[in-house]
Specification:
By secondary structure, this protein is of the alpha+beta class. The protein contains 19 helices and six strands. Strands 1, 2, 3, 4, 5 and 6 form a six-stranded mixed β-sheet that branches.
């Protein structure tokens, strides 16, 4: 969406908010340009937004709150610099942050008596500001009940969805991830405070298997957050150890898939795709999110259920994971996912910070490392199986990625395995 179309859509949404909800709305773009407002903005907020010394605080409050919505996938409620209640939503078409819309200028019920003193205190911290014009406009503020403010937040978010300014599937997927990570964090803190030194992970793994066997999706969802918290505890947030525990879990889920009638090759391919994502995950939070989705997908209840609910980068990544051993050109990917070459080239760096070529190389390296670690295939055969033009190309790519040749990487794994058995 270009700047002209975006501004037009933003203004349309703010007019709709004014007409339907009767509420003032302000849009702050990412740059330092003047904010855009609708006709219902109260006199106090309008004066703040025009004041050269105060308006930066309004911008900061809106921008920081809007950025929170990209993390949580929901409207964000906060107090502005003056202590007034407001609700904000980011504007992020195709996942690219383009500013935020805020509805504000609210007093919590019962706060009107102390608002003059509060605003005076806040203004005293800003040099060279005459507080009289601000105090004179306090009468334009209105009280709001918590339920009404939540309703405005929901209305604002839905308005950005219906206008196309935001993607409902993207926000809801992010919200599911945010809630899941919060549940894991809470479970982890409970375990840490309870001083659980060595949770029985293997016993819990078998318990998870029983949920899978009984097709008890609700039980599994309640169980998984605490289970992942235990994995974080026993691994001490070490990604290598965490991935090792996850490998055991993946094997359990794959086994149950096969017992439920999934073709062996399909079940193994799913496990390989999952472990590839785990290997590429940059942090423990991303690993835990992927694990939860993998387990819930067993019940057909994953966070995304179809191509329409997945981002373009998800679809391209999945296609590459299945075809990286082939030529896997950008043109091939464009045809497979049904979008133009230029769209993929533009969107991937915005979504994942990588070009198509970089993503393809990363996926090929991940598969090659897996084959080096788990098979006795000759290095030349692995190079061919992973889509490298020849063994020399493979060696150069791996050395660039991990500073080891294929032979050195395999010998290192062999030495580590031998040492582990000796110590065991």
């Amino acid at each position: 969406m270009n700047d002209k179309n975006l501004i037009a859509e933003v203004r349309s949404v703010m007019e709709s908010i004014g007409n339907v909800a009767g509420q003032g709305a302000v849009y702050h773009s990412p740059d330092a340009s003047l904010p855009s407002v609708n006709d219902e903005v109260c006199a106090f907020c309008s004066y703040c937004l025009r004041h050269k010394d105060v308006s930066p605080y309004c911008r900061y409050a809106c921008q920081s709150a809007a950025m929170q919505t990209l993390t949580s996938g929901e409207a964000h409620f906060q107090r502005c610099w003056a202590g007034l209640l407001s609700v904000s939503v980011a504007i992020a078409p195709a996942g690219e942050y383009r500013g935020g819309i805020s509805l504000g200028g609210f007093l919590a019920e019962g706060e009107d008596a102390g608002i003059q003193e509060l605003v005076s205190q806040r203004l005293a911290a800003i040099p060279r500001v005459d507080n009289a014009p601000f105090l004179a406009r306090l009468g334009s503020l209105r009280e709001i009940a918590p339920s009404a403010l939540r309703g405005l937040g929901h209305f604002l978010l839905e308005a950005t969805f219906s206008s196309g300014l935001n993607s409902s599937s993207r926000f809801r997927k992010q919200h599911d991830t945010y809630v899941r990570q919060r549940q894991i964090a809470e479970a982890y803190e409970d375990l840490r405070q309870a001083e659980v030194v060595a949770p029985d992970i293997m016993s819990d793994t078998y318990q998870l298997a029983s949920f899978l066997n009984r097709r008890d999706s609700e039980g599994a969802q309640e169980f998984i957050s605490r289970y992942l918290a235990k994995l974080l505890l026993v691994s001490n947030w070490n990604l290598t150890k965490l991935r090792a525990h996850v490998r055991t879990l993946a094997a359990v889920v794959t086994s149950q898939d096969v017992l439920d009638g999934v073709v062996w090759e399909d079940a193994m391919r799913r496990e390989w795709l999952f472990m590839t994502r785990i290997e590429r995950a940059p942090d423990a939070e991303s690993i835990c999110t992927s694990v939860a989705e993998f387990v819930l997908r067993h019940f057909g209840r994953a966070g995304s259920t179809g191509a329409g609910d997945r981002t373009l980068s998800d679809r391209v990544t999945e296609w590459l994971e299945q075809h990286c051993q082939e030529g896997a050109t950008l043109k091939d990917a464009s045809r497979a996912v049904g979008v133009s070459i230029s769209t993929i080239s533009h969107q991937l760096p915005l979504d994942i910070g990588k070009t198509f070529t970089e993503l393809r190389a990363e996926i090929r390296i991940a598969l090659a490392k897996r084959l080096l670690a788990t098979s006795e295939m000759p290095i030349s055969a692995i190079a061919d199986a992973c889509g490298f033009s020849d063994q020399s190309h493979f060696t150069k790519a791996l050395k660039t990625a991990i500073s080891l040749t294929p032979g050195q990487f395999r010998r290192m794994l062999y030495s580590f395995e031998t040492e582990s058995k000796t110590l065991g």
